[in-house]
Amino acid sequence: MDTNEQKLLSEIEFPSDLRKLPLETLPQVCAELRECLIDELSRNPGHFASSLGVVELTVALHYVFNTPEDRIVWDVGHQAYGHKMLTGRRKQFHTNRRLGGIKPFPSPQESEYDTTTCGHASVSISAALGMAVAANQQGADRNVIAVIGDGAMSGGLAFEGLNNAGTTPNNMLIILNDNNMSIDRAVGGMNSYLHHLHTSGTYNRFRNRAAHKLADWGLLTDKGKKRIIRLNNSIKSFIHNQHNMFEGIDIRYFGPQDGHDVISLVHTLRSLKELSGPRLLHIHTEKGHGYQPAVEDPTTFHAPGKFDPETGERICNNTDGMPPRYQDVFGETLLEMARRNKRIVGVTPAMPTGCSMNIMMREMPERCFDVGIAEGHAVTFSAGMAKDGLIPVCNIYSSFAQRAYDNIIHDVAISRLHVVMCLDRAGIVGEDGPTHHGVFDLPSLRTIPNLTIASPMNEAELRRLMYTAIECQDGPFVIRYPRGNGIMPDWRCPLEATEIGKGRLVSEAKDSGAQKADTAILSLGPIGNTVQKAFTLLAQENPTTAIPAHYDMRFLKPLDSSIMEEVAKKYDHIITIEDGALNGGFGSTVLEWLADNGYSKRVTRLGIPDRFIEHGTPAELYHIVGLDTEGIIKAIKA
User: Fold this and answer.
1) pTM of whole model > 0.85?
2) Is there a catalytic annotation at residue 569?
3) Is residue 278 a contact partner of residue 252, using CB atoms and an 8 Å limit?
4) Distance of CA 517 to the CA centre of its chain
5) pLDDT tens-place string over residues 60-118
6) Is 403 a catalytic residue?
7) Residue of 84, 89, 403, 463 marked catalytic
8) Catalytic residue from among 287, 425, 464, 605
9) Which CATH class for the 326-480 domain?
10) What residues does each domain of the chain span?
11) Is 103 noted as a catalytic residue in this protein?
12) Which listed residue (35, 332, 375, 459) is catalytic?
């Protein structure tokens, strides 16, 4: 959009500038902000449709509330691009998600207007409640607003926060952005409930006037407030033949309201600002609102990549002849196996398209379960099905599986239930940054008894590991694999078993004329392909250089003792390479094995260092942490 056309938006650097504008100009501000988002994100990809859907809400919030003193807690953070543009970052927004640029999600490290790091869903109510209680405890006159939407209300933490909010003194406002979506269409009882929930605006106005009168007369004590709310709830339930769950836990409910009428939203927020106690405003929005291609296909336009802003046509790289994505190999293989075995079912927490379980869903919808943004439930739900004879394949992104850690221990591992957990997006994922990098699964899961943990080096290995996990054992099995394309255009190998706990020799050590190859590299997962590329470059650089042996260990747990014995006896120097956190991960496992078996070897560990890795392209980030070919060659030479 031409800067000259952004007449109002160009005058807004911070919300204080927005609040100087007349109310009647806000629709134009919204139009300019939406056009700016479309223009920027068509060229510099990011989360798109979610932020378009909350433009009016974003403008209204910053217009009514005194941010940053008043707190806005976004949930999920991919709704917050408009918020970033209104809070001092519009001129830098072209650096969004780029190395060294604006962060992909709100972050207190970046701006005082960002109250929390919110890359994961369902956290806003709990965090905002904590802030509201802190304000009460310190006597601060501060408003706290939780904006929860895009499917985040399906998460268990949201209900825990609601339950506590109804019994803890606070003045929190919860805004429920109901757009019937997470990434794919929202599912579950909560979605159905919100779709049908209604309440009388006339009734709410009458109740508000009555409450103010009782307060003026000095009759509205804290105990009296709760009794009146319960009486109101009973009357409303009788009138509408419907119980309001929010008011049932002493949270006053308002709405539903059109979330795209900015002037009406301002009036409502001003009214709610004057009320005390926990309250919830339910608004209806449309994901991708204002841009028809995103409205028609909100799943694709959740994060569409580059596109033509005039036509909505996505600008995709030519993938002809390219290897498939790991998630597509998972999806195709799952369907292939499900056709053979009727006990196989699929489970995903709101990511059927992202993890490619939609491939099986299209043919066997009755055997696939999208449980919403509820990772812990996904695991325990899978455990229940496994207990009574099904074979659930539960696919969760690696970074989101952290949220199900207790469920994996308590509900799956202790009982040795046959649940196959496929962890997509393992390792460095790129522009989504530290909340989404899947680097903690190996060290966290390897301490849990009864788990088998494996990672395939390529697509054929993924198929064989899936077959092994589903058909060849009856206990819990974890398979981790990365985001993006593999290395094998011809990947449809036969489905065969892999011996559990057995790795493989990928390439023998090669002595040079003057130098003995005294080093072995042990890798886990697809990072092994980078090792092979490094060997090729090393040989091209100096044909007389000694090349280490390379073993693909396949399994973190159980570790292949026969390979470890061979390497410990044959080589003086061992290099371990993993696409995960070094502390407690694969390299640590190797060190422990050597120590426990009486070997003293020089070991170099390559992996993710003990810090959070920021956003950037995967190539940039692998270079920073020394996991590209250059870093591996440097380690070999050292």
Assistant:
1) yes
2) no
3) yes
4) 43
5) 999 999 999 999 999 988 899 999 999 999 999 999 999 999 999 999 999 999 999 88
6) yes
7) 403
8) 287
9) alpha beta
10) 3-199+244-302, 326-480, 504-637
11) no
12) 375
